[in-house]
Amino acid sequence: MSERILDFLRRRDADGPCVVVDLDIVRDNYETFAKALPDTSVYYAVKANPDPAILNLLESLGSSFDCASVGEIEMVLATGADAARISYGNTIKKERDIARAYQLGVRLFAVDCVEEVEKIARVAAGSKVFCRVLCDGVGAEWPLSRKFGCDPAMAPDVLEFAHQNGLTAHGVSFHVGSQQANLGAWDLALAMAAGVFQEMALRGIELKMVNMGGGFPTRYLKDVPGVPSYGEAIFGSLTKHFGNRLPSTIIEPGRGMVGNAGLIEAEVVLISKKSAEDEVRWVYLDIGKFHGLAETMDEAIRYPIRTPRDGDVTAPCVLAGPTCDSVDVMYEKTPYELPVSLSIGDKVLIEACGAYTTTYSSVGFNGFAPLASFVI
């Protein structure tokens, strides 16, 4: 809990929910990642929170950037960062967007199939490409789907095709799943990456880089290992699978970089029951799935919530948002314990909201304004 954020909220007199991000915490997080894996390049996953103040800070600290679109690339370039510090990490790109990124100076692109390679070869000649391979995501609270990546056995064919079409077959990438609490998750992925390196060497092509993705967690309700523990485990796996010929490496922290730096202030709009016999109250906030809390989908992310009545007797509640949409319910399968004394009009603080909140907030669903955002 940042005292700087609490002081800001005490002085704020505007109405409506807001998220506040403390740049001092972002700075500390970056320095922790850089220290834990000193020989690995940090590429901040811009999609987690693209606020210009965050991007400017990270650029000044020497961070590189993982971008999912031309829009994100342009935001990064606006900080003064060189295009050489940008990876176009989305495996699903329009050809004209690849051409625009190339025009802007980007030379590092993700692929997971020959069809994507063909697009890059046509409009971004000579660029470096890395092939994303599938991971099972075991141990992650938000495992990633099969939407991105290919079977590791297919990756050498994709990379060899890139080499044959004038591109540089640069390396391999993977993502072990968001909010990954299993320190060993990177071991299996690095074993797969080493296998691709070995197969490519047999084909006469030397790969140079492993992009180890994100997945570094933020603490919500459960304790998670610290970044130094991840650094130690990852370095151990690198030496185990690559020996003395370590590749250049990249990590792409997003949630781990900004998640714990943000706090949402919201207001209790209504507390009610569905029947006289119902023992579970419904607590409605002025923020919900459509205005920043999309990651409560399937109750995957359970945010810590503080109230002005903490310490009083608690009881389970269904927690829901304010919109006229039946899916706007955050926690119902596993009700949330909140004080019985909680009242309409009380302000609540939702912790660890620096990542994937503003970027998931709708433009104006039901006429509600997008989530207000402040970076201090």
TrEMBL record:
Alphabetically sorted, this entry's keywords are:
Lyase, Pyridoxal phosphate
Reactions listed under catalytic activity: L-ornithine + H(+) = putrescine + CO2
Enzyme Commission no: 4.1.1.17
Active site (record annotation): C324 (proton donor)
Kindly report, in one word, the top-level EC class recorded for this enzyme. lyase
Any single GO molecular-function term of the entry would be:
ornithine decarboxylase activity
**GO terms for biological process, alphabetical:** putrescine biosynthetic process from arginine, via ornithine
Question: Do the record's keywords include Chaperone?
Answer: no
Occurrences of domain Orn/DAP/Arg decarboxylase 2 N-terminal (ranges): 26-258
Q: InterPro entries, from UniProt?
A: Ala_racemase/Decarboxylase_C, De-COase2_N, De-COase2_pyr-phos_BS, Orn/DAP/Arg_de-COase, Orn_de-COase, PLP-binding_barrel
An example of a Pfam family matching this protein is: Orn_Arg_deC_N
Q: Which domain of life is it from?
A: Bacteria
Task: List N6-(pyridoxal phosphate)lysine occurrences by residue.
Answer: K47
Q: Name one GO cellular component term.
A: cytoplasm
To which pathway does this protein belong?
Amine and polyamine biosynthesis; putrescine biosynthesis via L-ornithine pathway; putrescine from L-ornithine: step 1/1
Q: Which cofactor does it need?
A: pyridoxal 5'-phosphate
Family of this protein:
Belongs to the Orn/Lys/Arg decarboxylase class-II family.
What is the protein's name according to its record?
ornithine decarboxylase
Question: Which organism's genome codes for this protein?
Answer: Roseibium polysiphoniae
